[in-house]
Amino acid sequence: MTALFAPVERPEASKRRDPNLTEKLASALAELTWLRGDPIPIEHLRQMSAEQICSLFEWDHARRVHDGGDNHPLNLTPRFPEPHGEKTAKIDVPQIRKGQRLAAAQDEHHERMRAKIGTPEPQEREASCKAKQRRRWPKRSLESGNSFEYQRRKKGLSPSSPKASSKRKWRPD
């Protein structure tokens, strides 16, 4: 009987190693460029080390760090340096500057309004407001209008006393 498949010689366990994170990242980035439709030519990739492949990319934040973004993997997008630079110059920087201009204009407006009506600075105002704070709703238990105790109190009877106005009493036949 002949074997369908010839046994494959595998390298010894001591010679084989798992890919490190840099090699995994380089592989993922190369695959990602292929999926996006702007692949790096395979001949070039074969001549490059994992570090060289990784150095081709810059990391763009989907939510800018200035706006509260972080370095979580879901917030990072690999981009080639040229498109990343264009996006930063044409989109990110103008939006950051506009936000700063609007915040400065809003602060100036608040200062003018405070001066006009004579209210204290925000820190002083917070301290005085905390002293004046009181509960919005009074603390009491809410009862439904159908409860037995509620109906008895509404008629002026205590919940534990027997009903004085009951004319019929239940009697067994």
In short:
This protein is mainly alpha-helical and 173 residues long. The chain has 6 helices and 2 strands, in the order αααββααα. The radius of gyration is 37 Å and the shape is flat.
Describe the structure.
This protein has 173 residues and is mainly alpha-helical. The protein has helices at residues 21-36, 42-47, 50-54, 81-117, 122-132, 148-154; strands spanning 58-61, 76-79. Strands 1-2 form a two-stranded antiparallel sheet. It is flat, with a radius of gyration of 37 Å.
Give structural attributes:
single chain, 173 residues, mainly alpha, two-stranded antiparallel ribbon
Structural class: mainly alpha
> How many individual helices?
6
Cα shape: flat
Radius of gyration: 37 Å
Q: What percentage of the residues does DSSP assign to strands (E)?
A: under 5%
| Alpha carbon gap, first and last residue | 98 Å
Helix content: 40-55%
Low-confidence stretches: none
Compressed to H and E, one letter per element, the order equals HHHEEHHH
Widest sheet, order of strands: 1-2
Mean pLDDT: 79
Record field, number of beta strands: 2
Largest sheet: 2 strands, antiparallel
